[in-house]
Amino acid sequence: MMTEAREVVLPGEVLGTTKEIRASYGTFVEDDKIISKFLGIPKKRGDYLSVVPLSGVYVPKRGDKVIGFVTGVEKVGWVVDINSPWLAFLSLSEAVDEFVDLKRTDISRYYDVDDIIYVQVSDMRGGNVQLSMKNPMARKLKGGVTVKITPSKVPRLIGKSGSMINTIKEKTKTMIRVGQNGVVWISGEKIEKAIKAIKMIDEKSHVIGLTEEISKLLSE
Amino acid sequence: MRPNYILKVLESGERVDGRKMDEFRKIKVETGIIKRAEGSARVRMGKTDVIVGVKMDLGTPYPDVPDLGVLRTGAEFVPIASPDFESGPPGEDATELARVVDRGIRESDCIDLEELCIKEGEKVWMVYVDVHTINHDGNLIDASALAAVAALKTAKIPKLEDEKIVRNELVKKLPIKHIPVTVTVGRVADNLIIDPTKEEEEVLDSKLTAAVMEDGKICAMQKSGNYPLSTEDVEKMIDLVIKKEKELRKHL
Amino acid sequence: MGMKTEEKLIVKGKRLDGRKPEDIREMEMKVGVIPNANGSARVRFGDTIVVAGVYGARPLFPKHLQESDRAIIKCRYNMAPFSVEDRARPGPSRRSIEISKVARLALEPALFLEEYPETVVDVYMEVLQADGSTRVTGINAASLALADAGVPMKDLVVALSGGKIDDTIIIDLCGKEDNYSLADIPIAFLPRKNEITLLQMDGQLMPEEVKGIIKNALKSGQKVYKKQKETLRRKYKE
Question: pTM of the full predicted structure?
Fold first, then answer.
């Protein structure tokens, strides 16, 4: 089976003009030229041209659901590492519904250092990232292991309507949570195989025919 | 607030102190002002004030040029000269200034290093050129380079008696072959400016410094600043350096 | 610079290593060579080898160094002690401090630093083997490493040295040529619009010659640019 790579574009490469199409994520406009900011894959969706970078750090966006690691317990909240150049903060009021008597309560009973949590980014302003667990899907993730992939490859890992990730879950009998920040949490039976598949997607996201390769790997 | 005002003024082709875009501030050069140094000069350009001292010492030559004296240039941005300067070893800006001043002197063959050889491979004169900032109001490179050359031109070599230096007896002039002059051109919006003040420097896009010899040859160049330059920019800046260096040369 | 030599550096139009005046040395480039770094590249021009690594954007402490509206870029050029003939003492020298500064200024205009406020992008250049033109080789490597790291860029950065030996204008000076040439002019530029981000000179040349060497280097730099593009694309070819 021949594996073809999708056409990769480079930073500074001219992709089109604003007369033909609209510039979107991963591109910038100079005069009327649309230029790529990244080493990545160009994507045309309707009227919009974007570039998905093949590497890069996670830049939090409001609404993103991410997996974070509690690194510090403060008086009124927790400092969380969300695999990003900025630290994030989960305030007590966004994490706990019940009334908490701060004079008597050590809030580490709710979440403590090294806990893994599935949270939502509620705000990102300058260098301040605010998290919230108000979304019903938010929870502490117990047990399992985590791996990190390139954040821009999360859509590929999830697949169209979740097709890719569901295939992996079924074939490896695992529960998997994928954070938009590139952190993936896995728990269940064939964890090693699931990780292999996830890593392959991270490395070969640009290859056409990846879906078949993954199917093959999972069937072994 | 102030930087925006200065930027507006410069963008319209004028300057806060009323100078023309390519005009130097009032320049004053004094030599022989530091008794303990074998050569010295103080240069003031407007409020910018630097002193350069030349000290001579005995040392060993570099192994690949055993018959040449040694030139060493240093610069200190001492905190007394500006609220922006901190104590401690020279940072990247002071280091860069020292190396740019050095380049002008070294590449032009300013000092006759061969004449400074006492015993080939073993003993030579070391020439230490040290730049000391006294007040920073912009254009430190041009002022320092001018002071360095003025100090070298008037420096004298101390007497050697039984292979020891007799400090207070200066017997002959430091042999000088060429005179480099250094000019920095700044660019802001589409305008080129000469001799920026500290406030003007803070709003410049880019600078190009070049050292020119008496025969018109360029012997050193350094681009600095955060913005790129087009080839046309570079050519215009080089032309302006050539035009203005004569004014500084008058002071030497 | 300007050392005297009895040796002729150009004989019958051929340089010491057999090159024609306009020839660049053999170039080898590879990205993704340091797994721990966000991006990395190894670049070789003849016998000059430099490895560049990029970490970032990442958190910056102490806080007072942070810029509220953009990332800062830090650059460290360093020579390995074994990279030169006479062992170089480890640690920063004044030369490496200056080069770190001009290299940073050569790369910064190419980056969209506003996308990562309050963070830092660390760029490291390690010279493993020095045979002239190490800073431009380092800048070529750093440019690849930044693209490899996924730092948003306006353009790649291309760098090359130009000079003059005997009466001939040459490109890409090797170590010996660097020592004995009449002039050594390292240049870095953004290739799409030919915008110069690094320009230095050692030597003695008439102004018109300087201008000619700059133009020449920009033109020859396109060959380096081509190689950089191939190297980045090659990472994602099966």
Answer: 0.90
